[in-house]
Amino acid sequence: MTSCDRFLLDQPGGTLNHIRPVPAALFLAASLALTGCSQASSSEASSASEDATTSASAADFPVTIDAANGEVTLDSRPERIVSLSPSATEILFAIGAGDQVIAADEYSTYPAEAPTTDLSAYDPNVEAIAGYEPDLVVIANDTNGIVGALAKLDIPTIVNEAPATVEDGYDGVAALGMATGHVDETAEVVADMRAEVDEGLAAAPQDRLRIYHELDEKLYAASSHSFIGSVYDSLGATNVADAADKQKSGYPQLTEEAVIAADPELIVITDQVSYTADDVANRPGWENVSAVRNGNIVTVDADISSRWGPRLPQLIESIADAMASVKTPVG
């Protein structure tokens, strides 16, 4: 398994029980308004938000979540959740649903109390999953048709995809809050994330530094069409991988010639690639790349940089710090 593969691993009981991205955001706004963390833009918006919040409380199941795999109805609050997404596992624990998670995939290593097992998200096995008798499975992708296979066993599944933007990430957190009956806790988590993210963005330098985020030795990189790429865009950076991402996949493969020609001022790698910043600096022909010449190659935590969720503020802070510390030639 390559580091690029691992990066990609890691989204009827009443008239207001159908939860879609916009209503999910409204429910968060309502919860925050009730705790003094948000303001309603109008009386109509406030009323709609309060209704959405009420419908999402633990006592008001069933609810229907509009997930990436379609509408998913949960008749009661799930108490035996299997998470096959490291990002979802982090989110579930952060919003207070950790006690409802009975098993998590092999890469769900955070937080420490996560019930990590040998379950695979890359090659999910329906029998192994069903053995835990889950009443909800959360995954990032419908790999091997696992959603349909679990549906045949009457096991509901929510596909919580990797978000394309930071705002989409908040919606993903909101959806899991709705699904697990943790409305107020989720609102608080998102409010804290927003505040910390805004603080990190404000601290970032205003210069549009050219950034190259390399995923592996084959020169796959994160463009602005990926979640991490959207973070760089929010920080005001210019992503050198964008020119190669004609299909807007989020993860194009570059050539050495293209990287050298783009002349990134900051190169970012993760701590789980098989090489170091020094190895990058010593690549033949890279000696005149600005980031190499000025010593601006940084290594970030792979878990944080490849997962969307409550540790997003840490990622933004680390990248903002790296951007602020970029060295430029003297004279």
UniProtKB/TrEMBL annotation:
<dbReference type="InterPro" id="IPR002491">
    <property type="entry name" value="ABC_transptr_periplasmic_BD"/>
</dbReference>
<dbReference type="Pfam" id="PF01497">
    <property type="entry name" value="Peripla_BP_2"/>
</dbReference>
<comment type="similarity">
    <text>Belongs to the bacterial solute-binding protein 8 family.</text>
</comment>
<dbReference type="InterPro" id="IPR054828">
    <property type="entry name" value="Vit_B12_bind_prot"/>
</dbReference>
<keyword id="KW-0732">Signal</keyword>
<dbReference type="InterPro" id="IPR050902">
    <property type="entry name" value="ABC_Transporter_SBP"/>
</dbReference>
<protein>
    <submittedName>
        <fullName>ABC transporter substrate-binding protein</fullName>
    </submittedName>
</protein>
<dbReference type="GO" id="GO:0071281">
    <property type="term" value="P:cellular response to iron ion"/>
</dbReference>
<feature type="domain" description="Fe/B12 periplasmic-binding">
    <location>
        <begin position="80"/>
        <end position="327"/>
    </location>
</feature>
